[in-house]
């Protein structure tokens, strides 16, 4: 680590997904944390939240099994009730045991990232498989009720329950509570970047309460040396990190890049932190890769970061294709009445057809025709040149917050993304996916450099990271970065999270105009 390189947003997010949750006492500007205050707060907060998750999962499992027993318990042979009691108890034990063994209750994954839901789903699937194998061994026909009804019902209850608990936790963090006290140790530039990112995204659970730099100095508002970094006190030098952690009760030591950090010094810091409650998190900052492609392995006693190649084919991609087609079919049937009503309103308000067709660029640079509800007056494309000097879009995008070409019905459709529903036909025909990068215009694609063209390695999406992160409010560089991150770090779990977050973004009309 010989260069002063700032940590990326993905690295910060990866750090935050590994930590636990605390509720430290608020610190005033420039005030050093009281000895042991953060640790005491952590001992109060973390077990309570973890117990709430465990109790809610246990109650959900018991209630679901009880309801299913009440609905189906009177059926079958005369000894059904005895068998039901055994199968019910066995189902409960298997589900709760799988959650414990699968570390679905581990505090490092609760409340942050997709890993919590991934472990929950994997544990429930494991319980179903074990239950099926037990039914085969016991030649029991009644086992199907518990495999195909009980466990899916438990999943249908526990997933929303976990989400509601997480939403409550995030609201607490937005108010400055339930944040993990962090000591950041590195160069002033990289520490400042970390502080800015944690303040921008408090729901991730970090709050930088203290800083250590190589010379024990920070930077004041005029850029000169001082005893703070962006209002966070500098408590010492990088050689004193372990001592300050033990005195201050910090739960995370975030090591950011600085020439001081050699492998030897990092190892000694890890040794000195043994016995404390602090977790050391190191930002490699070698490349913008996170998620399922990043693995840590040991070779000849040396810890190595292994980056697997992005997958553009294979079983997971085939599953994504099936999910896209089935999902598009179901959504089209579900929204058919709404789409017919919207089409009628569009034609009533202004002359022209209900649909707007436009050429876009898809996978591998192949062009296709995208279909949307018309939200502008007829011949709006011809009027674009007259508005070019008022463009508010970022980079290659043309956007106006108050575009005079947009109709009244069109403004409502855009706000709630209803105008994009016809793109489900594009998903159904295979030119688009439910989740993916934003489909660019041919003139945008022609201006792409080699890096940005990697967006075209996968199908464009009806929604994506760009939509759940601000949509039109995003700077061009940020929108490109999010699309490239999706291309590189794609997974089925990430798709599921994006689809879920899209519902919230659409409901609140965030960044849509």
TrEMBL record:
Name this protein carries in UniProt: Exopolysaccharide biosynthesis polyprenyl glycosylphosphotransferase
Membrane-crossing residue ranges in chain numbering: 52-72, 84-102, 123-139, 145-165, 326-348
UniProt subcellular location: Membrane
Coiled coil: none
Source organism per UniProt: Gandjariella thermophila
Record membrane topology: Multi-pass membrane protein
NCBIfam families linked: EPS_sugtrans
Keyword terms: Membrane, Transferase, Transmembrane, Transmembrane helix
Family to which this protein belongs: Belongs to the bacterial sugar transferase family.
GO molecular function, one term: phosphotransferase activity, for other substituted phosphate groups
GO cellular component terms attached to this protein's record: membrane
Span of domain Bacterial sugar transferase: 320-507
